[in-house]
Amino acid sequence: MNISNSTTAPNAGEYAGDEVSAIVLDPGYSTTRAGFAGEDVPKSVCPSFYGHIDSDPPHYLFGENAIHDPLGNLQIKNPWGSDGIVEDWDTATKVWEYAITSRLTGNRPGDPTKNGLNDGNANGNGEAMDVDMEGLENLENMEKPLEDSPLLMTEPGWNSVKAREKYIEIAMEEWGTPAFYVQKTGVLAAFASGKASGIVIDVGASHTSVTPVLDGMVLKKGVQKSPLAGNFVSNQIRMIFKQAQPEIPLTPHYLVKTKTPVDAGAPAQATYKTYDIPPLDSFRYNEEERVLTEFKESVVEVWPGPGRFTNGTNEEIAKSLPGRPFEMPDGWNQLFGSERYRVSEGLFDAGAALQDADNPRPKDEHTIPRLVQAAVQQVDADQRPLLLQNIVVTGGSTLLYKFNDRLNYEINTLYPSTRNKLIAPGPLVERKYAAWIGGSILASLGSFHQLWISRKEYEEHGTNIVEKRCR
Amino acid sequence: MASGRDVRDMLGLPVGGETPKAAIQKRAKPAAPGKKIQGVAREVAALYGERPPPVAVYEEKKSYRAKRQSTGPAKKWVPQPFTNQARSDGLILKHWRRKPTSTPAATNGEDIAMEDTEISDSYIEDSSEFLKYNVAPDMPTFTEEEYDAYLRSDDWSREETDYLFQMIENYSYRWPVVWDRYDYQPSLKSHLPTSQEFPNDIEQALATLPFAPPKSRSVEDIKARFYEISAKLMKLRIPEVQMDADQYATYEILTKFDPVLERNRKTLASALMNRNMDEVKEEEFLLAELQRINMAANRLDAEREELRARLEAPIPNQQVSAGLASFTSSQALAALFSQLFQADRSKKRASGGGGVGPGRLSLSATDLMATPTSAQHAQLSAANRRQSLAQQAVQTPIRHLSPLAELRYNVSTHDRLTSGITFGADKLLKMRQAKSNVQTQKIGQALAQLGIADIISIPTAKVGDAFEALVTKVGKLLDVRKVREKEEGECRVLEAMKARRMSEIQSDENGGERRSTKREVSDSQDRDSADIGDDDDDDDADADADADGDADVDAEGEEEDEDAEGEEIESQMQSTRQASEVEVMSTRATSAGHKRSASVLSQVSTKSSKRPRK
């Protein structure tokens, strides 16, 4: 028996793989995932948020460790726009580059200007630096981070043509990749579950999207997105905290020096840190968001059905269920009862969402069942049953407890006459990074190599080749 | 050893001394390594004692992974550049490959490595492994002339057609995807002449466009256009007559595509899919209900069947519906006769050719001239005889007398005789007994009603027959009476239900005038002669009619008894309602000999002959 291990080559025809050490980059609103194709998890998962200190020149901070450091005047920003398309291309490039270089290709020696970490003590201002960098690049091509790795990027289903062209421009011009391809997250998430056709429900941080995929191709008319996703749930939690009597204090970790245990509902007994030059509000917001993430992970639950949370006696039933305790970083703690259902109900039932002046009532057509309905409606009638048999659930926010039960109930209510099947991979990594994993599979296939857009082709046709090739 | 040989002997195996020896030798082998057991295993083996365990315990050899064979220094892998033949731009990617081992044996490893990297740098692998996956869809092609001559369409511009073909090729005939991405924007370039004429006035140029601004095409539109072109091109390339079967089948499919039909089908499909929960549930419920009704119907049929069997009405589907009616045609009669004749002949042969004499009751050609009734009689008795024929095919010949002679000499034939002597009176008395006391009483009452004495003074065979016939009929009469009571009960329930419903409807009618008029109209349609004056009366009459109808069906057709002469059973049923008629009937029954039609009598007599046998 030929026992295969890491030192033997796989048998011919064992799998259609042919690895060319391609890098898969899956940028998202919350995190940016990067890793080598053919691996099963992304090696590098970095927050998409970056720190920015408004000095002269501006100082940027990237990576998990840097952005949680409470430096003076630090603000936390995100290059993604509210419409789910990258807005700030310059920093987005830097964030992505950080994700690639920090763990995959490594920081090349003698390239301090490139990774942005040392920008503070480099050149005079941004423009000058840019000029400088270009000069450097022209002089020495070796400085580009992706010199010998083809790059597969993912994009949301609603990405604009301009954004796609920007992707290839960044990859080719700034990173110097020999070959490039861009694929939609929906398709890749379906691939990660071993499906070529299906409906992909992706509930991420900033957006929920529903993407019908047929034979590995996105049906563009059916792509639906809505802002009711993880951040929406966070906002709902904030509102719950605000509306509670007395108001529940939300103190992030970095402000707490020491804490002493207190009874449930009692005010916190903690000493707080003070900073001479405190970080800005956006930093605090981001840190609060971390606490809320913890809250979502440990307390929030989706009403599993049958019926909506606000229907009939469901609320009463929820009240009678045992609550879940949560302790804030400053020691304040309480048992959360039916509120924990309430905050996630808005994803499915716009009417049940909490609202105030800053958070208007979400639109009905933005709830997940309505998105699915709209997406299915845009698909040819013959394909609908097929798609409904393969409903792939992905995205970090689908990890909310009982989310799948509820989704299953809602879809079966919408389409009682078809066989609907949810495909939600159990392992956390597969759920969170489905698009990356799909990209990893795709880019490591031998038959994929004919699809790459090579540098030569790019130089020949320009950026609009991405529209022709990446359909 | 001896036992082993015995077993072998019993099994019929060759008694050879060689096979056991071999077996012993084989058995001995595994024992040998057992002695070499070491360590704890040896102690365990000692605990077994003299008798080894029933399951042989073999110690697996220690199965660590095989030690890696050191075959020299570690193999080198190199990022091997390669080109993909499916690409036209010569993109060079690198994948990891074993370094070719063609290096000569040398002393200095570093030097070799240097050499090899040099070699691999210059060498570019030409990978065709995945070339087979690079497939392009097969598209029909056409020239300008062909397009102008055959493929023009009012609805589709040349440019859009080209666009369509491009889309189909791009998406490899995936129609839903083609439709999804189909976004044709007519460019102004194709209308160059128009825009040249009015170079300054774009609006006017747009207005004079030969084609309407882009319209949304459905999947069916797209398919229809493409199939149409494909079919035309196919016909152009290969004339219809020269197509082989496959090609013609494809051609047929292409020409027969009907977008309207397809669209309707899809509308239906989506309607089916978009049913709401209630409709789906209703469908499930209806299906379950249908199944339940079917089962109930089967049960009801079985019950009816049982009832018919009890009444021994002619089974409707046997011969033609009525027993007698089937023999009205001469053809049927002839067939029947030949059948009987055949049966008789076989019997004759079996009985050794005896009884050729004139007195014997047997069929001859002259019997064909007999009346239908006699034929019926003959058939039934023959059928009866045929039954017994099977049992007593070989028997001593019986001398047959003519009926007249039989009567004269008081000779009776019996299929089977009970041993001992019985009195005719006893026989008659026995007939009065039924299984249950109540039934016996009832029979007694009925007979008393008919004025028949408890003890019949001279129970001759003939009287016995008559009495038997009578008792059978009385039995049936009682059965029928029971059924009738049951049906009447049902009718009452139904009437009550109907009355209640009617009263409900009437209350409705009082509420709304329109509905009542509607009902009246429908009523007048139902029954022409009905008086529409009073609703209440009307409804009652309706209910009655319904109840009657029910009774009719359930009680085996009362209508029939009014005109059917020969159907004695039905007539009896009617007679149950009027005591006077019962009496008439009884006179008929007692004086059955001459007046009644022979068929019924014979039917009864066959039964009487069957009964003792049972």
Automatic annotation (TrEMBL), chain A:
<comment type="similarity">
    <text>Belongs to the actin family.</text>
</comment>
<feature type="region of interest" description="Disordered">
    <location>
        <begin position="107"/>
        <end position="129"/>
    </location>
</feature>
<feature type="compositionally biased region" description="Low complexity">
    <location>
        <begin position="115"/>
        <end position="126"/>
    </location>
</feature>
<dbReference type="Pfam" id="PF00022">
    <property type="entry name" value="Actin"/>
</dbReference>
<protein>
    <submittedName>
        <fullName>Actin/actin-like protein</fullName>
    </submittedName>
</protein>
<dbReference type="InterPro" id="IPR004001">
    <property type="entry name" value="Actin_CS"/>
</dbReference>
<dbReference type="InterPro" id="IPR043129">
    <property type="entry name" value="ATPase_NBD"/>
</dbReference>
<dbReference type="InterPro" id="IPR004000">
    <property type="entry name" value="Actin"/>
</dbReference>
UniProtKB/TrEMBL annotation, chain B:
<feature type="region of interest" description="Disordered">
    <location>
        <begin position="1"/>
        <end position="35"/>
    </location>
</feature>
<feature type="compositionally biased region" description="Acidic residues">
    <location>
        <begin position="531"/>
        <end position="570"/>
    </location>
</feature>
<dbReference type="InterPro" id="IPR027109">
    <property type="entry name" value="Swc4/Dmap1"/>
</dbReference>
<keyword id="KW-0156">Chromatin regulator</keyword>
<dbReference type="Pfam" id="PF16282">
    <property type="entry name" value="SANT_DAMP1_like"/>
</dbReference>
<dbReference type="GO" id="GO:0035267">
    <property type="term" value="C:NuA4 histone acetyltransferase complex"/>
</dbReference>
<dbReference type="GO" id="GO:0000812">
    <property type="term" value="C:Swr1 complex"/>
</dbReference>
<dbReference type="GO" id="GO:0003714">
    <property type="term" value="F:transcription corepressor activity"/>
</dbReference>
<keyword id="KW-0805">Transcription regulation</keyword>
<feature type="region of interest" description="Disordered">
    <location>
        <begin position="502"/>
        <end position="614"/>
    </location>
</feature>
<feature type="domain" description="DAMP1 SANT/Myb-like">
    <location>
        <begin position="129"/>
        <end position="234"/>
    </location>
</feature>
<keyword id="KW-0804">Transcription</keyword>
<dbReference type="GO" id="GO:0006281">
    <property type="term" value="P:DNA repair"/>
</dbReference>
<keyword id="KW-0539">Nucleus</keyword>
<dbReference type="GO" id="GO:0000122">
    <property type="term" value="P:negative regulation of transcription by RNA polymerase II"/>
</dbReference>
<dbReference type="GO" id="GO:0006338">
    <property type="term" value="P:chromatin remodeling"/>
</dbReference>
<comment type="similarity">
    <text>Belongs to the SWC4 family.</text>
</comment>
<feature type="compositionally biased region" description="Basic and acidic residues">
    <location>
        <begin position="511"/>
        <end position="530"/>
    </location>
</feature>
<dbReference type="InterPro" id="IPR032563">
    <property type="entry name" value="DAMP1_SANT-like"/>
</dbReference>
<protein>
    <recommendedName>
        <fullName>SWR1-complex protein 4</fullName>
    </recommendedName>
</protein>
